Amino acid sequence: MADDVLLRARGVRKSFGAVEVLKGIDLEVRQGQVVSLIGASGSGKTTFLRCVNLLEEHDGGEILLDGEPVGYRTEGGRRRRLSETAISAQRARIGMVFQQFNLFPHLTAEENVMLGLTKVLNKPKAEAREIATHWLSRVGLAERRGHYPYQLSGGQQQRVAIARAVAMEPRLLLFDEVTSALDPELVSEVLGVMQGLAESGMTMLVVSHEMLFVREVSHHVVFMDQGRVAQAGPPEAVFGNPESERLRSFLGRFHGMFGI
Amino acid sequence: MLDFSFAPGTFWFEAWVARFSLLNGLWVTMSASALTILFATLFGVAMGVALAYGWWWLRLLARIYVDFMRGIPILVLILFTYYGLSLFGINLPAYWAGVIALSAFATAHIAETLRGAVESVPAGQMEAGKAIGLRFSQRLRYVILPQALRRMLPPWVNTGLEVVKGTTLLSIIGVVELLLTNQQIVARNYLIVDFYLFAGLLYLMINATIAWLGARLERRFSYLRY
Prior knowledge:
The structure holds two protein chains of two kinds.
Chain A: E1 5-16, E2 19-30, E3 34-38, H1 45-52, E4 60-65, E5 68-69, E6 72-75, E7 78-81, H2 84-92, E8 94-97, H3 109-119, H4 125-138, H5 154-166, E9 172-176, H6 184-199, E10 204-207, H7 211-217, E11 220-225, E12 228-233, H8 235-240, H9 245-252
Parallel strand pairs in A: 3-10, 3-11, 8-9, 9-10
Antiparallel strand pairs in A: 1-2, 1-4, 4-5, 6-7, 11-12
Chain B: H1 11-17, H2 19-53, H3 56-71, H4 74-87, H5 94-120, H6 123-131, H7 136-151, H8 153-166, H9 178-189, H10 192-220
Helix pairs in contact in B: 2-3, 2-5, 2-8, 2-9, 3-5, 4-5, 5-7, 5-8, 6-7, 8-10, 9-10
């Protein structure tokens, strides 16, 4: 593909039983961009993010990463699900950070970061440890590398989770409300790490309720409402000139945080 | 009752005379227990994984097996394996018939325990494993099973204790394990209280050791918290 679009979603649909959660999502993430998904809960942002990483399978439309459809291939005009191995390989190119951290509790911080490096990327242990140390110090946790998750605060756990995701050198990093489960005073340390990653050119797709962060760091903001993209554009446009009543009232909840 | 003098007809004398049969009985009990626990753990873990993640027909088969095994008395299973199978031309030595029957029984228990343990691992763990690109077998091996096995440690120890006690049933098919050894000694000298008390104490010691080892393991894995 000639352009620098890394992730392209076209008409993505997804239903849970009779409830259609995604009603045709179009979205593009360019290389090096930070794209944020905002919207009320139930608007489908998290579901969309999970579809990108194949934690959910979309029912219709297509999601292309580097021009390659995720989760299936087309054979004689029919969609066929990829094998488990091929799906795992695709997932390895996409990193994901979860709301609940999901660190492996039986592994130390360092081992959490090393697991994918040694088992998925087949790196030798020594090299994996080096990479883990590098990323753990990037998130400010070099001295905690031998700690188990329960010995770390929520903010520290989430920073380890970010290190675990980014150490795999993914093409794209997904953030699923990564500060929502944190105590307020721990939010900024995680957002700081994310901002650093964004500045280093990491391509990121972020679901967040941290409107200040979204406005400051995103190149592109997508407002989702009831399974559709209601408005999208640069943050100044979305925050400065909300077109719909629903976006106005959504942003109104954050009123006072910035001058809308 | 307990008499500490050392003369024929006293407990210590009779125990000394029978020391080799007692040691042999102890060995039979301990080896049958150890083998059963080993087999049942291997097969039980495999079957537990099948119960949790298998294709529907595999889950169904495993479920039928587990419910069947949990629903019948171990003694029936032992008698069937020893006498029943010989009707089909399969003649197993009593010891092995017993070990197989006990293993078949304990496998069902461990399988069900493991299924529960696997399902108690939060869904986010599987998802985190997916997100870093681990294949299913790797997620199972490096993420789910290490956590599930630690969670099932207490019920696993219980199954071990049940197995040790269950080996006494092997005396019914003529395996000269610890209980039958003591019965034979009692038949000679009528020191009923002494030798049954002695046998009980030995079982207690074996099981106390297992429980102690289990508690130690649990302490070792105490960092597994959320």
